[in-house]
Fold these 2 entries.
Entry 1:
Amino acid sequence: MGIFKKEAPLPAELPQHIAIIMDGNGRWAKKRGLPRTAGHKKGANNMRTIIDYMNKIGIRYMTFYAFSTENWKRSQDEVNAIMDLLKDYLEEALERFQETDMRMRFIGDRSVLNPELVDLMEKVESVSADHTGAVVNMAINYGGRQEITAACRNIAQKVKEGSIHPDDIDEDMISANIFTAGQPDPDLIIRPSGEYRLSNFLIWQAAYSEFLFDEVLWPDFSTKDLDRAIREYSNRQRRFGGVK
Ligand code: IPE
Ligand code: IPE
Ligand code: MG
C-alpha cells in the first residue's frame, strides 16, 4: 500500500445549497507578516477556485459572505481595499459569467455602495439572468437582521395600502420578501478560521442548516477541505424536528 491514502469519493447526494463565511483573511496575512489586504486578495482568489469547483461537482446554489453590514467598522483603508477587490472580481465576472451557464446574484443592501460597483453588480446579474446552471449569491453589505427588517417594512407597506391583511403574513411570505426569495435554504453552512458563530449571516435561512466549522483560514481552504465538509454533511442525520 502506498503512503497516499485514496480519499473516499464524494457522496451521491450532494447538498443543493452550500453557503460559506469567508473568514480568516486578516489572520492569514498577519501570520506571514503581510498587510491584511494581502489576505483579502488571496481570499478573493480562493473564492474563484471554490466557485469553479462547486460548479464542476454539481452544487446548484452557493452563497459567499464577502462583506457584512458590520464590516464598515473597519479602517477606511481596509474597506476601500475590499471594495476595490470586489470591483476587480466583478469586472472579471462580467466576462466569465457570459461564458458559463452560472447565474450570479447579489444579496445585501446596495443603497450605500459605490454607484460604480452597483452598476457592475447589475450588469453581471443581467448578463447571467437567463442562465440555467448553478446560482452564485454574493453577499455584499449583507446583514441578516437588515434583510429581515427590510422584509417587515415591505410587508407593512402592503398592509397599509390594503393589498394584504395581517393574517396573510406567514413564513412563506417572509421567505418571499428576502434576498434569497425562490431559492432553497442552505443545506450546509461552512465557516473556516476557527470562529463558531454566524455573524449575522442568513439568520432566517439557516433555521435548519447543517454547520461545518473548520480551523483552516479561508485563503487556505482548499477543494479537499470542501470535499471533506461535503462528506461530513452526508453523514449527518437531518430530522427537521421529526423522527427518523
Ligand atoms: C474575512 O476575513 C473577510 C471579511 C470580513 C471582509 P477577516 O478580514 O475577517 O479576517 P480575520 O477574521 O481578521 O482573520
Ligand atoms: C464575517 O466575518 C463576515 C464575512 C466573512 C464577510 P467577520 O470577521 O466580520 O465576523 P466577526 O466580526 O468575527 O464576527
Ligand atoms: Mg474575521
Entry 2:
Amino acid sequence: MSEQFDIVVIGAGPAGYHAAIRAAQLGMKVACIDAALGKDGKPALGGTCLRVGCIPSKALLDSSRQFWNMGHLFGDHGISFKDAKIDVGAMVGRKDRIVKQFTGGIATLFKANKVTPYYGFATLHPERLVKVKQHDGSEVELTGTNVIIAAGSDSIELPFAKFDGEAIVDNVGALDFTEVPKRLAVIGAGVIGLELGSVWKRLGAEVTILEALPDFLAVADAEVAKAALKEFRKQGLDIRLGAKVSKSVVTGKGKKKEVVVSYADKDGEQSITVDRLLVAVGRKAASKGLLADGTGVKLDDRGRIEVDEHCHTGVDGVWAVGDCVRGPMLAHKGFEEGIAVAELIAGLPGHVNFDTIPWVIYTEPEIAWVGRTEQQLKEDGVPYRAGSFPFAAIGRAVAMGEPAGFVKVLAHAETDRVLGMHLVGVGVSELVHEGVLTMEFKGSADDLARICHAHPTLSEAIHDAAMAVDKRAIHKAN
Ligand code: NAD
C-alpha cells in the first residue's frame, strides 16, 4: 500500500526544495525524496548546489581570494606580513562546515514546513507511483496527486579522461584536493573551469585551461569576455583557446600520479604533463534510472525531461523543473521553476521569465549579465544604443584597489527600454540585479540614469553607464 501525498517531489536540490516548501506553505501534504549522502555518509539535502556546487565553491573562492590578496593587494595598502601560508585541510574543513550548516538547514526547513523527507533513490512508475529504494535497502511506495521531478544534473565524463577521484576529477574532486597541486590542467573554460581554476591558481598552482572553442566565453558579451580574459591572463591563468583535448594518460600511483593531456590546436598536436586534471566540460540531466517503463514522460535527445513552458511533462499531474529540463543549469532558475510549479498546482499564476535570469561567474573580477548581448541584438536586428563606464573611474572601486572592468547598458534605440546589462568587475554579482529589476519593470536607460545612486559606491558605474547610453555620462568624455 503506498502512502498518498498531494505532491511528491523527486530531488531536494534548489528546484526540488523550493517546490516542496512552497507547496507545503500553500497547505499541501508534501513528500520530498533525495538519494544524496554528505561527506560523512549521512543523507544531505540541498542538491549539487549546496553539497558540491555553488556554496562550497564560493567558500573556496573566498578563502583563496583572501590568500591571493595578501600577496597582490595588501602591499599597496601598506600592509606587510611574514610567511603567508595556506593550510588546505583547514580551508576545506571550513568549506565542509558551511556545507553542513546549509544542508542541515534544508532539513530544518522541511521540518518547520511539515515536508516529509525520504532518503533514497526514487523511480517514477505509471499513475504517479513513486518507489523509493532507501539507503538501508528497504523500499517505500508513495503516490502523488502531482509529482514534481527535480532530479538535477551530473558532470559529463569524457571517454578518454575517466574520473578516478585522484588524478582526474570533476568539480566534486576539485573541491577536496588535500594539497595545492603543483600543476593543474582544466578541460573547459566554462563556468566551473574558470571558478575552480581560479581557486587553485590563487593558492599557487600552475593552472592551464584548455578550451576547445576559439572564442573565450562565447555565451557572454564579447567585450566583457575580452576584458575578463585579459585580467585572467594577467593573474597567470594559462588559458589556451581552440585547444581540443582528445587523450589523457595517467602514470604513477597515489599522490605521485601524473597525467599527460594531449590536445590539438592551430599549431597541431600538443601535450602537457600535470599532477591533476579537472574535467569541466558541462553537465547532463540526471535522468538515468528515474523513469520506469510506461510513465509516458519523454526525454529529449540530450536526456532532459521534455516539458512545456509551464514545466508540465504532458502526463497528467507530472511536472519537471531545474537542471533536468531545458534552459540554463542555474540554481536560481531552478528556484523559480520550483515555486512556479507549486503555485500552478495550487491554482495560482506561476511563471518564470527566462529573459531576466541573471548569470554570474564568480571569478576575480566577477562577470555578470542579464538580457541580450550586443552580438545577439545585432543577430536579432534590434536597433540599440550602448553606454559603458569603467570601474577605473569609480572612486569606490579605486579606493578598494579593484579598478578592473566596466558596466555596459544596452537599450533599444527608439524606446530606450533596457535590453541587457553586462558587467565585469568587483562585486558585480550583486550589481547585476539592478539590471534585472530594471528589465522586469520594463524600465529605460533614462530611468536608471535619473535614479539617485549613493556616492561613493560601485553602483555608480551603472548610473554613469546608463547616462552614457545618451552620451551624457558626467565622469567620462562621451
Ligand atoms: P560549461 O558548459 O559552462 O563549459 C564547458 C566548456 O568545455 C565549454 O566551453 C566547451 O567548449 C568546453 N569543452 C568541451 N569539450 C572539450 C574538450 N574535449 N576539450 C576542450 N574543451 C572542451 O560547463 P561547466 O563549466 O562544466 O558547467 C556546467 C554547468 O553548471 C553549466 O551549465 C553552468 O552554467 C553551471 N554552473 C554555473 C555556475 C554559476 O552560475 N556560477 C557555477 C558552476 C556551474
